[in-house]
Amino acid sequence: MADLLSSRNLRRALPWVVIVVVALVLPAVLPPFRLNLLGRFLSLGIVALGIDLIWGYTGMLSLGQGIFFALGAYALGMYLQLSSLEPGQLPEFFSLYGVKSLPAFWQPFTSPLFTFFAIWVIPALVAGVLGYLVFRNRIKGVYFSILTQAALLVFFNFFNGQQKLINGTNGLKTDTARLFGLLVGSDAMQRHLFWLTVVLVIAAWFLCRWLTRGRFGDALVAIRDDEPRLRFTGYNPTAYKTVVFAVAGALAGISGALYTVQSGIVSPQYMAVPFSIEMVIWVAVGGRGTLIGAVLGAVLINYAKSLVSEQLPETWLFIQGGLFLLVVTALPDGLVGWWRQGGPGRLIAMVGVPPKAATYPSLDLDPEVQAEHSDIDTTPRGGAS
Amino acid sequence: MDLLYDTLFNGLAIGSVLVLAALGLAVVFGLMGVINMAHGELMMLGAYTTFVVQNIFKAVLPEALFPVYILVAIPLAFAVSGLVGLLLEKTVIRRLYGRPLETLLATWGVSLILQQFVRSVSSAFAIGLLLAVVGGLLVPRLTPKQWWQQRWTPLLGTGSWIVSGLIGIVVASLLGGQRVLDQPWFSARNIDVTAPVWLRGSIDVGAVNMPAARLFIIALTVVALVAVGWFLQKSVWGMRIRAVTQNRPMSDCLGIPTEKVDALTFLIGSGLAGVAGVAVTLLGSVGPNLGGNYIVDCFMVVVLGGVGKLAGTVLAALGIGVLSYIVGSGSLLLVWPAMPAGLNELITFFATTSMAKVLVFAVIVVFLQIRPAGLFPQKGRMVEA
Amino acid sequence: MTTAQPAMNLLELRGVTVSFDGFLALNDLNLQLAPGELRAVIGPNGAGKTTFLDVITGKVRPTKGDVLFRGASLVGQSEHRISRLGIGRKFQTPRVYQNLTPRRNLELAVRGPHGPAALLFGSLSSDQRDRVQHLLGVVGLESHANQPAGGLSHGQKQWLEIAMLVAQDPELLLVDEPVAGLTDEETARTGELLCQLAGDHTVLVIEHDMDFIRDLQSPVTVLHEGHVLCEGSMDQVQNDPRVIEVYLGSETQEAA
C-alpha cells in the first residue's frame, strides 16, 4: 500500500490529477464563449492524434483527413437535422430544392444507435477502402500525399455540389437541434460537450498509446523507417497501413462530430484543402511521434489562430506560412521533441549559463513513447525507463 | 462528326492548359523528387505579371503597341516566376533535400505567404518588407566579426531578423498613414486581363468554333513543349539534368554540378508555371487563389504520367483534359440521345465541371490499380531501393 | 543440367532470366540447393548476385523461368508470403530499424504470427522471449539491448541483422555479404555461426571475401553476367580456366 504513494506513482498520477481538476474548474471560470472555443480546439486534438499515428509513427503524410473529419461531422449533423422533426416532416432546406421525400441514405440517420456507430465506422470504412486501394499498389511518400489531397478535393466537390442531397455549400446547422432534451447551442449543453470532449481526447490518447507502445507500434515505426525490409521479415505492410489509416479515419470522424456540435454547423468547408493541411501543421508544431504533442499542437495553433484572427486577420496567413517554414526547417521534432531533447537547456547555454550535467526535467506525461523516440537524445533520462 | 471534333478541340484546349501547368511540376518532380505546393502560386504570379504588363502598355505606351503586350508578358512572366522559384530553391528546398514530405509542407507555407502577399501588398507594405530584408541581411556586415562565432550567435541571427522585421512593420504602418501608399496594388479582388483584339475572335472550321484564345494557348503549349524537349535533349545543361534525374550520386561523382542543376531546373519549372499563368489570364478573371484551382489537377497529371518522360506528362494531361470535358459537358448525351434512362441520369449527375473531377479521380484510382507507377514506369534495380 | 538429384531440392531455379529494359541482369540461370546445404555464391560486380536474391525473395519477378521452393513455385508471390514460407534474407548493407532497440528489432523478427491482430492482442510467448534473449547473447548485444540500434557500430549492426535472420528461423537463409566491413575476428566468428546454422538450415552466402569463403569449406557457385559459370569446391573453382579468366585470375596467383 505504501507503494501507491511512492514518488514515482505520484509523479505518474500528478498530470492526471491536474487534468481532471482543470477540466472540472474551467467551465466555472471561463466565459461560455472561451470555453466553447477550448472545447472545439480539444476536439481537433483527436484528429491530430490520428494524423500523428499515420504520419508521426507510420510515415504516411495524409493531406486528406478532412474527408473523414467531415464524414463524422455530417453523420451527426444529419441525425440532428432529423431528430427534432415531427414524423413525416422533412428538414427545411429540402423544400428549397423541391425535394419531396427523404433521400434513401438519410433514412438510417433517424436512429441514434446507427448514428453513434456511423460517426466513426463510416469514416473508418472509407479510409480503409481508399487506403487499401492505394497501399496494395505500394503507392507511398509524396504520391500518397497528393492522392489523399485529390481525394479530399473530390469529396469537397461532391458535398459542395449536391444541394438536393445534403444542402450543398450551405451545410447543415446543428446548434438549433435538441439532443437529450437540451438545445445543442445552449450553454448547459456546451458545458456537457466540453466534458465529453475532454473524456474522449483522453480515451483517444490511451487508444493511440496502446497502439504505439507494443510490437504493433514497433511495426509501424519499422514501416516508417524501412518498409521493404519489413516485408522480407514476413510482414505485410499493406495490412498494417490499412488498419492504422482506418483508425486515424475513425478518430477524425469522432473529432469532426464533436467539432460540429460545438461550432453549430457542418459544411463542405470542413473538407477544404487548406484545413486538412493545417491539421498536419498542428502535429508538426506540437511534435510528431509524440502523442501529447499532437494534442498540444492542435490547441496551441488554433488558439493562436483565433487570437490573431480577432486582432489582425490579414496577418494570419503570413504567420501560418511562416510557421510551416519554421517548424520544418528549424524544429523538425516540434515543440515537445525540442523540449525532450534538451532544447531549453541549449537555449540557456547560448546566453552563457553552462549546461548542467544533470538532465533537464522532461515532459513526463508519456515516458514510454518518449523512450522509443529519442534517438538523438543521448542524455540519460531520469526515471523514465 | 462535328460534335466529335468539337469535343476533341475543347478537351485539347483544357488539356493544353494542364500540360503547360503541369510541365514544370513534372520536370522538377522527376529531378528532385520534390512536389512544389507553391507551383500554383507561381502560376498566379505569372498571371499578375501579365496584368501589370497590360496596365503599363495601356498607361504608358502608344495604343498601337497594345496588341503585342501578351507576347512581352510571356518572357517577363517566365522571368518573374522563375526568379521567385530560384529564391525558393536556394532558401528553403535546398535545406530539405531528401525529405520530400517536409518539402511538401514547407512549399505549402510559401504558397500561403505568396497568396496573402498578393492580397495585401501596397507601396507601404513593399517598402517595409524591403527594409526588413535589407536590414536582416546587413546586420552581419555591420557588426563585429567575432560576434558571429559565439555560442549565442544563433540567438543574434534570429534576433536581428526579428528586430529588422519589427522595424519594417513599424515603418510600413507609419507609411500606411498616407492614403496613396496604403492603397493595395491588387487587393483580394479578382483582376481582369483584356485580351488583345486578335485573341478575341474565333475561327470556324466546318461547324467547329475555335476561339482564338484557345488556339493561342494550344500553340503556346506546343512551343513550350518543343522548347523544353529541345533543351533537355540537345543542350549541355539539358543533358546534365537528364543525367541527374537518372542517377544523382553517379552524376555527382562525374563532376556534374548537381546543385546548379537543381537550381536551374527549379528556375525553369517555376518559369513554366509563370507562362501557364499568362495562358490562364486569357480564360477569365484571375485572383490570388488561382493556384488552388489548378494544383490538384497538376498533381494528378504527375501521378498518372509518371516521372522522367515528357510524353507521360503530355498524355496524362490531355487524357485528363479530354475526359473532364466529355464528362463535364455531358456531351455523351448529345451523341447518344436515346440512351437508357438510368445511364442518362448517371451522366447528367456528373455533368458539371466539379462533378467531372469526381469521376476523373475514380478513373485515376482504377487506373493505378493496373499501372501503379503511371503510364511510363521506370524499371531496374534502383527502383524502390 | 547437373545429374539427377538424390533427394528433392529445397530450392531450385530453372532457366531464370531477368531483363530490365533489354539489359539481362540474369540470363538462363539454373541452380539447385539441397536441404541442409551451405553454399557460397561468388562473382564479379554486376554478375547479378543481388538480382538473384531479389528473384528468390520476390522483389523482382523473373522475365522467364521458374523458382521452386520445396517443389512449389515462388514466382508471383509477394515478399512477405515468401518470407513466411521460410526464406529469410540479410541485406548487403545492414538494414536494421534504427529507431528501435536491438531487443525490439529481434522481437519484430522472431518467428510467430505476423498479422496486425496478433501483434496488437497477442504477446510474446516465453519461448520467443528466451529466444530473443539468447540471440542477444550470441551476438554480444546484451549491454546495448535497450538503446536505439541507430547508435550501434557497423559490425554490431551486421550481427544484429544476422541475429534477426536467425530469430526468423527460416529454412533457407540468404546472406548477402555478411562480413563486409567486419574485423578479422568478427569475420571468423560469423563464419562459425554460419557453419553452425547449416545442417538444421540451408544457407546461401554471397561474399567477396575469398578467405572467408575458403574457410566455410562449402561448394561454390560462380556467377558471371547473370549465368552460372561453374560449380564445385573452392579449389576446383579456382583452377577453372574460365573463372580465372573472368574473375579470379590475379587472386589465385596471389593465393598460390
Provide the fold topology.
The complex is a heterotrimer of chains A (385), B (385) and C (256).
Chain A: H1 7-29, H2 32-57, H3 65-83, H4 92-96, H5 112-135, H6 142-161, H7 163-166, E1 172-173, E2 178-179, E3 182-183, H8 187-213, H9 215-232, H10 237-263, E4 265-266, H11 273-286, H12 291-311, H13 315-329, H14 334-340, H15 343-350, H16 367-372
Antiparallel strand pairs in A: 1-4, 2-3
Helix pairs in contact in A: 2-8, 2-10, 2-11, 2-12, 3-5, 3-10, 5-10, 8-9, 8-10, 11-12, 11-14
Chain B: H1 2-32, H2 39-59, H3 69-91, H4 100-120, H5 123-142, H6 153-175, H7 179-182, E1 202-205, E2 208-211, H8 212-234, H9 236-246, H10 248-253, H11 258-281, H12 290-305, H13 310-329, H14 332-335, H15 341-349, H16 353-370
Antiparallel strand pairs in B: 1-2
Chain C: E1 11-20, E2 23-33, E3 38-42, H1 49-57, E4 64-69, E5 72-73, H2 79-86, E6 87-90, H3 102-109, H4 116-121, H5 126-138, H6 154-168, E7 172-176, H7 184-197, E8 202-206, H8 210-216, E9 220-224, E10 227-232, H9 234-239, H10 241-255
Parallel strand pairs in C: 3-8, 3-9, 6-7, 7-8
Antiparallel strand pairs in C: 1-2, 1-4, 4-5, 9-10
Helix pairs in contact in C: 3-5, 3-6, 5-6
Folded structure, characterized:
The complex is a heterotrimer of chains A (385), B (385) and C (256). Chain A is mostly helical and 385 residues long. Chain A has 16 helices and 4 strands. Chain A has one domain. In chain A, strands 1-4 form a two-stranded antiparallel sheet. Chain A has a two-stranded antiparallel sheet with strand order 2-3. Chain B folds into 2 domains: 2-121 and 184-370, ABC transporter involved in vitamin B12 uptake, BtuC (Orthogonal Bundle); 122-183, no CATH class. In chain B, strand 1 (202-205) and strand 2 form a beta hairpin. In chain B, helix 2 crosses helix 11. Chain C has one domain: Rossmann fold (3-Layer(aba) Sandwich), CATH 3.40.50.300. The relative contact order of chain C is 0.17. By secondary structure, chain C is α/β, with parallel strands linked by helices. In chain C, helix 3 (102-109) packs across helix 5 (126-138), helix 3 runs parallel beside helix 6 (154-168) and helix 5 packs antiparallel against helix 6 (154-168). The two termini of chain C are 31 Å apart. The interface between A and B is large, with 48 and 48 residues.
